[in-house]
Specification:
globular, single chain, three-stranded parallel β-sheet, five-stranded mixed β-sheet, TIM Barrel, alpha/beta
Length: 289
């Protein structure tokens, strides 16, 4: 099963510093969201592929017509926070208010309940598993926030499953779609999202997707916008991860979509035999068992 997802945010939403005047900064930047989004939609419609779109509330507020268009084409509208702040840097209360705002902005446009979610930068880690209580309260049934390997902004390293599981936390359950991982010499890594997808050659990505039972993807509109400005103040490492091989990414993406069958989270949910899916328990300290 190969699941196609997008995180809908603009070129300046690269996770970086989070100053108190971030909203003013964002509002002053050039809008480029439509460039990558239109390319994505064209490829999906051409190939008749469904996908889940995790969308920032900020984008929904600023560009409701883009969300309306994605929804009208029949794609799943899902939440990616309102202000793209990593989850573990917020209090549970602040986090809930932000996510509630995002969900409301999306639902006001589509008149449909939002049930799927991904945290900015996969920022659900051992120390902020309280997130799952908030997701339950807000009616989220499907989560794609776990990155089961080391990562700058997220990375739930003691979570070892990289396939859909029933995640049990505080007496409730959520269907978890973690990022898919490959292993090499004891290292866990992914090739099917963001900078990783741009970095690895298509020949390797192809082999790994082919042999895997479960592939999760994540792309951004900016991954397919080679002419975007460079955000100021990024570290060298972040610059490399954010801008490496932007020019080749769209061609690779089109190859991937043509070569493999992709579905969205709603379709995946119907195909999975949840009765037989693995169960992962997480306690309030973030221990996984
Ligand atoms: Zn994001």
């Amino acid at each position: 099963m190969n699941i196609l997802t997008f995180d809908i945010e603009d070129w300046y939403h690269i996770l970086h510093k989070y100053p108190s005047d971030i909203l003013e900064k964002w509002n002053a930047y050039e809008d480029r969201i439509h460039i990558g989004t239109d390319k994505i939609l064209e490829v999906l419609l051409e190939n008749n592929v469904k996908a889940t779109f995790f969308i920032l509330g900020y984008i929904a507020e600023k560009h409701p017509q883009i969300i309306k268009k994605i929804h009208d084409y029949g794609f799943e509208i899902a939440a990616h926070s309102d202000m793209h702040k990593v989850a573990y840097q917020q209090s549970p209360k602040e986090y809930k208010t932000d996510l509630e705002t995002c969900i409301k902005r999306l639902e006001d446009i589509t008149s449909e309940k939002v049930v799927s979610y991904r945290a900015p930068g996969f920022s659900v880690r051992k120390e902020n598993v309280w997130v799952f209580d908030v997701l339950k309260e807000l009616g989220i049934k499907y989560d794609a926030s776990i990155f089961p390997a080391v990562r700058d902004d997220g990375g739930f390293i003691n979570f070892t499953e990289s396939r859909p599981v029933k995640l049990k936390f505080n007496k409730h359950e959520i269907k978890e779609f973690p990022m898919s991982m490959s292993s090499f010499l004891g290292n866990r890594f992914t090739t099917t999202g963001g900078g990783y997808f741009r970095f690895f050659p298509y020949s390797l990505i192809r082999i790994l997707v082919k042999k895997s039972d479960y592939t999760m993807t994540y792309f951004h509109p900016r991954d397919f916008d080679p002419n975007q400005p460079m955000l100021e103040g990024l570290s060298l490492k972040r610059k490399f991860k954010s801008y490496y091989n932007l020019s080749g990414a769209f061609t690779k993406f089109k190859k991937l979509i043509k070569e493999f069958n992709f579905i969205d989270i709603r379709q995946a949910d119907k195909l999975i035999d949840w009765e037989r899916a693995p169960i992962v328990n997480i306690d309030k300290e973030g221990n996984v068992f």
